[in-house]
Amino acid sequence: MSAHTATTELTFLGKLIVEGEIHCETGLHIGAGKGALEIGGADNPVVKDAFGIPYIPGSTLRGRLRSLLEQASGLAAPGELIYLSKRKGQEVRIHQSDRPDDEICLLFGRNSGRVDRVGGESLDAANVSPARLTVYDAPLVVESITPQMRENLDDELTEVKSENAVDRITSQANPRTLERVPAGARFKFRLVLDVLCEEDKALAGQIAQGLRLLEDDALGGGGGRGSGRVRFSSLSLTWRGKEYYAKGAADTNLVENGNLSGLQQLVTADDFAAKLA
Question: pTM of the predicted model, to two decimals?
């Protein structure tokens, strides 16, 4: 847990910006729903922008990072989870506590009010925390889909993976198709950490941990069936203090074209906070 307390005062100190590329090691499927299903199209299309180009929604990346960090911190237990939705068959459970040093709530924000815990009595949350972390939509680097790749794709930028669910008794096949961005594609991502007090500087370590966890997990749907393996590269870490916005002062480039291991070592070092002057 962090050094935040109930009396920690918030002010604006600056922003820590993480940018880089997401490489698809396997096909990536982030579903768009079936509202735009076309004749002959895949059963499960990927989400695309207004120009028909696939992208990774910031909400998808943010939610996956949060889920992995909750699990790694031991905060996915019933006593630590609350209901966002209790509709039968559509329950949504996430972590929330009223502890001022809870780094998950500090990173992703929390609201006040009475909420239902999954296990135990209801939580009367009094500590409101603004979300420190902003995760932007990650656009596709269209040039990463090479002409050689396009020769073997089902669409200009995507592939269709065919799967079968087989009945264990009758052996009857239930075919389905899954649209995916192919392995080898790259996306540009950007994360921004708002530093509102000295204690917030340590939250950068949580971001690095979440990215490391995601490299050995899966992003999007079909992760248990081979989709969604990614890695992060070409990373940059930039500090823009209060004077950058108020007076046009120079920013500080802490990492340029780095890797995730090096970035994590930097942000978890004892002297990292001193670098954000």
Answer: 0.92
